[in-house]
């Protein structure tokens, strides 16, 4: 058999009764919590983080890494179930908990921010921007006085008031300029 395949019925297992009900409930709970959170975010977040000049390559690299780890999991899980059985769920639970804590405390919020604002957060030449990395998402917010239209146009006069700031000390990241980025 190929690695990760069960070669006979004795290597697979059957669960019945309350453990089976718990397994089904936990599976539904996982899907219900993963589908609206980390599922789509793992595809959207990388595309928001990188500047335009490297965005395509960076997202391709992030997608490749995502698929490489999914492929590795396909080979890891069947032998893991064979060797450590139900403890595989504990292993995944520990990793999911660690990932939740890491993301909750270390990833800056990008919702409702323009791509330029997100780029300013990671731009080390912008005073105070890098300190937002590691700031919990609920402590960063956007102060907006811009009116977007259906076409996505932004009033140029209001563009100067667009800024992001750190909620604890109210220091602002410099507003965006109307100048084209230097390449």
Describe what is shown at a glance.
The protein has 183 residues and is mostly helical. 51% of the residues lie in helices and 4% in strands. It has helices at residues 18-34, 38-49, 52-84, 87-106, 115-122, 156-159, and strands at 140-143, 163-166.
Task: Provide keyphrases for this structure.
two-stranded antiparallel ribbon; 2 strands; elongated
Reading side by side through the largest sheet, how are the strands ordered?
1-2
Count of DSSP E strands? 2
Helix content: 40-55%
- Global Rg: 22 Å
* Count of helical regions: 6
**Overall body shape:** elongated
**What is the distance, rounded to the nearest whole angstrom, between the alpha carbons of the first and last residues?**
53 Å
The structure class reads mainly alpha
């Amino acid at each position: 058999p190929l690695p990760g395949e069960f070669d006979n019925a004795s290597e697979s297992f059957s669960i019945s009764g309350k453990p089976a009900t718990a397994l089904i409930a936990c599976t539904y709970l996982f899907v219900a919590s993963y589908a609206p959170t980390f599922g789509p975010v793992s595809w959207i977040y990388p595309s928001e983080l990188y500047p335009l000049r490297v965005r395509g390559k960076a997202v391709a690299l992030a997608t490749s890494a995502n698929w490489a780890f999914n492929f590795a999991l396909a080979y890891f899980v069947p032998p893991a179930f064979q060797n450590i059985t139900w403890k595989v769920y504990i292993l995944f639970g520990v990793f999911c908990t660690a990932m939740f804590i890491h993301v909750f405390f270390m990833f800056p919020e990008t919702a409702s921010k323009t791509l330029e604002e997100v780029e300013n957060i990671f731009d080390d030449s912008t005073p105070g921007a890098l300190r937002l990395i590691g700031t919990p998402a609920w402590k960063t917010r956007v102060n907006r006085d811009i009116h977007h239209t259906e076409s996505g146009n932004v009033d140029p006069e209001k563009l100067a008031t667009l800024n992001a700031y750190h909620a604890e000390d109210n220091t602002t990241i410099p507003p965006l300029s109307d100048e084209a980025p230097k390449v």
